[in-house]
Design a protein that fits this description.
Length: 302
């Protein structure tokens, strides 16, 4: 084959011709936004056809718009994975000092309120001829009944130096069914910030890094150095979970990681470093044989 487009059109023509023979009508296809997608996988001897039941990628929850992603949005499923690996639960405070358009804090807030992932999105199977609309309506209604309305602000907060990002995060919170007033948001630089809650909790964040976007206004290394100082001075007793492509992050922060998880942010190979934060001069001596943490495993990289 010399043309992928030609092969794609041949698959499409075969399907619609078969439908014409069966029904008498040949459907008209929107090649950019078809009602039903069919994927063909070819090797030397076989062609395998797959019917797409999800529609848009499953990481999309349905609240983010195409035109307002922000500079470098984190995929929603990766944000949920970071929260799960961190050990955070809705009872504990959560803070994202680099919240951007709000993906991590929205995932956390939806978890805390019992909002099922993707409850407001459309799925590809809804366009199939044998789709049971009544059954699907019952299932969605059951999920919507399980949502717990927020009677008070959640112990979740976010901050970002860019006022446009904060405005977008507020809009996304409303679209996600959380409510802009349920999560505390602040436009500020992380340097010199203090813990937003009295009870220690979790910092889960995806700060800017060179392959993704520039660390605006920071000389090389100085941004994370200041971040480390802020963590030690303002967040004693907290646990920080930081996703980055820079494997030298612990040295730049001046902190020893509790553990690290290898992850991919799109095509970028990253690590989520986990740090227990101690006040300056109070860090305990390193245990050469650490016990497994709550997430399982030990400090060794997997």
């Amino acid at each position: 084959m010399t043309s992928l487009n030609f092969a794609t059109l041949r698959v499409k023509d075969a399907i619609v011709d078969r439908m014409r023979n069966a029904t008498g009508d040949r459907p008209s296809i929107d090649t950019h936004r078809p009602d039903v997608r069919v994927f063909a996988f070819l090797d030397a001897n076989n062609a395998t056809l797959y019917l797409d039941l999800s529609g848009e990628a499953l990481f999309k929850r349905g609240w983010r718009q195409r035109e307002d992603k922000g500079q470098a949005p984190l995929k929603e499923n990766l944000a949920a994975g970071l929260l799960a690996l961190s050990g955070w639960t809705p009872e504990a405070p959560l803070y994202d000092p680099f919240c951007g358009s709000g993906t991590i804090i929205i995932e956390a807030a939806q978890d805390a309120l019992g909002i099922a992932p993707g409850v407001s999105r459309h799925f590809g199977f809804e366009n199939l001829a044998d789709f049971d609309a009544d059954l699907w309506s019952t299932l969605r209604s059951d999920a919507l009944r399980r949502i717990r309305p927020a009677s008070a602000p959640l112990p979740i907060a976010g901050a970002d130096i860019d006022p446009r990002a904060i405005a977008q995060a507020r809009l996304n919170l409303s679209r996600a069914g959380v409510g802009a007033d349920t999560v505390a948001l602040e436009c500020r630089d992380f340097t010199g910030s203090k813990a937003p809650f009295e009870q220690p909790g979790f910092i889960v964040c995806n700060p800017p890094y060179g392959e993704r976007m520039d660390f605006e206004g920071a000389a090389e290394g100085s941004g994370f150095t200041g971040f480390g100082a802020t963590l030690r001075e303002g967040f004693a007793g907290w646990r920080a979970c930081v996703l980055t492509s820079d494997r030298a992050l612990p040295r730049q922060l001046g902190m020893k990681e509790r553990r690290k998880w290898p992850l991919f942010n799109g095509a970028i190979e990253c690590r989520m470093f986990v740090f227990d934060i101690f006040a300056p001069g109070t860090a305990p001596r390193r245990n050469r044989n650490p016990a497994p943490d709550a997430a399982g495993g030990d400090v060794a990289e997997r």
